[in-house]
Amino acid sequence: MDTQPHTDMAQQRGFTLFMRWLLLLLIISEVSDFLIFLVPFARCQKTSYVLPVDCTFNGTQAMYAQINNALWSNEMRPVTYPSDVLTVKLGMSVAGILGVDEKQQVMTAFIITTLDWTVPFLSWNNTECGFDNISYPASELWLPSIQIAEHMDQETNIDIPYLQLNYTGGVHFVQLKRVTASCQMDIYKFPFDVQNCSLTFHSYLHEENELKLMSKPAAFIFDLSVHSDSGWRFVSVTELISTTTFTSKRTFSSVKYGILLKREASLYVVNLLVPSCFLSLLDLFSFFLPPENVDRSAFKMTLILGYTVFLLITNDLLPDSASHAALINVFFSFSLALMVASLLEAMFIVNLSNNSKHYHRVPRWLHILILDFLARLLCMSPKPPAARVTVTLNPHAEGRLDMPGEATIPAETREMEMIEGVAMVDELKKVARDVLTIRLRLEEHLSPKENDWKLIADVIDRLLFRLYLLFVIVSYITILVLWLKH
Q1: pTM of the full predicted structure?
Q2: Is the dihedral of CA 263, 266, 271, 276 positive or negative?
Q3: Is residue 479 part of a domain?
Q4: Does residue 142 sit in the same domain as residue 272?
Q5: Looking at per-residue confidence, does 268 or 375 come out higher?
Q6: What's CA 226's distance to the chain center, in Å?
């Protein structure tokens, strides 16, 4: 009877011990799960990864193995905390301008871009190893996704399979790209135009709170660019760091480069402007041909035909613009209009000179206005040739004049003759005035009426030539000032 209580107490003690061990096992399990949770968090907390290796061959292999261990994921941004912002420093240089299409409003260029960022948990002791940089496969490392917003065609890249790692954790990645970018071009001052094309770099994947783009100095970018002889000359490069908003909640960091290009105008000056000026000069010197000659009109018509052929040949060299016409097109149209006006003036002068016999006599007011006033103003003296009036003396009167006096005239008779002579002088003056009037009437009647029209044509031709020359000089100087005006 006494053994039964002892048995119950033993069972109770065994059960209590079992429960204690079970509770201990549960506590150990919970602690192990918590430690497993803290392992990756502790890995995110490390700030650097120093590789304790030497510089032997086996050490180099070990160093690469430890780098692979440090870069434990090539699919995640290399940041200590997921909320950290990764700063990527962007550099660009233009290796050459391959082409500028004004009609399509695009620019094709070959550029070299560099991307630099820092991996915070990667470094090694460069003093022990003796080198600062190593090459690493680009496919084994996370790379930022950077695109060009103005790109209009399929992007063509020359892949460089390796990037450069620095002992401080810095990454240097180089890309070679052939870019066809849209560019809003202003061809008003062609071929003395300056174009400002922009290239905007940003990421469509990582927002501003994940990736921030910085730029190298513009002077550094300009010095690295190749100033090749491709018809364009670099003037300056500017950079602008900003944010790009695609939606109301998503913003992306961006870097915008403004490339200022100036066209080399020597080719267009030699092929377009100089021949046009020569043809205009020939049209100007055609005024020295005789105005009554029909060859002047034929020469001007041939000149206009040659200028039209010249415009057709050079049409492919001129850029198109839907917004406004280029100044060189205005220059060519203006030169052609001057040639047409010169031809019309030549036709008018030839018609006035050759068909003057069919016109009426020149009105007196027109005679005074052109032959008297305008002729003197233009330093011309178009005096019509006087009509030749032949006077035949009476042979009997000549004989009487040669006859000597028959006798000496008395004094009283002389006094009488003096009185009569005074009256005769007055009468002779009246006769002289009448004879002069008759002479002028005879000259007007005998002179051909078409001679006045020819003189009027000469004066008008000289006046129109000087007006034409003045208008050409003023117009060409105005166009030249507009071309060279900044």
Answers
A1: 0.65
A2: positive
A3: yes
A4: no
A5: 268
A6: 21
